[in-house]
Amino acid sequence: MTALMDKKTFRSWQRQRLADFAKTPAKKRQDQELTSLALQHPLVQEAKKIGLTLPMLLEVDINGLIKELRGEGKELYLAKCHPGWQLDFLKWDEGAPLMQTKFGVWELAEEKEADNALDLLFVPGLAFSPAGKSRIGFGGGYYDRFLAQNSVQTLALVNSAMYFKTPVWPMEDHDQAMDDLIIVKEAGDE
Ligand SMILES: Nc1nc2c(c(=O)[nH]1)N(C=O)[C@@H](CNc1ccc(C(=O)N[C@@H](CCC(=O)O)C(=O)O)cc1)CN2
Ligand SMILES: Nc1ncnc2c1ncn2[C@@H]1O[C@H](COP(=O)(O)OP(=O)(O)OP(=O)(O)O)[C@@H](O)[C@H]1O
User: Is position 1 within any domain?
Assistant: First the structure.
């Protein structure tokens, strides 16, 4: 196993790994597997109000999942970033205009009242480990702050490149554990 790295080193190493993985056929296949596993997950089946983000290229592509969830009549809430590294969730009606932020992420164009009382939140990240259900994100601390203030069930979709048997990044006191991880591995992964 890879030795412990500092967060900055880990993030740049892991971004490159995810970029390489995104070019392989396994990425798309795992996106589909994760989508169907997510639809069967009890936290998803029980939730009515679900928070999520639109995926970047390195992340699990949940566009198919979003379509299915809408078809099942779930209420979807899209993340919006605010100054002070604060994250809010806004009700996302189908077809509502979106805009791309300076980070390259799509958010609702409209400023409207947040509703952070969600049943479930899909949490993106660079890497996850079932040991402590740990996560490392892109580094803004948005989710750690949000989850310190809002009690919401959290679920992460983890492909084989995001999966680590134990964390190889340093854990910090403010890191929030996930409630569950859905993990897809490849044959030969530990
Ligand atoms: N899909 C998604 N949305 C999210 C997050 C996330 O991790 N993933 N965030 C989690 O906190 C917040 C925004 N934080 C972000 C942190 C880093 C980058 C980022 O690395 N952007 C790339 C450009 C990507 C592109 O252009 O496609 C970059 O700056 O290199 C983006 C958003 C809220 N929305
Ligand atoms: N609850 C909190 N209150 C105040 N600051 C926080 C809190 N949680 C995290 N931070 C700060 O946010 C910064 C980034 O945190 P961290 O490295 O854990 O980000 P991350 O979880 O990987 O990113 P993200 O959640 O945006 O994907 C750190 O400087 C950290 O001190």
Answer: no
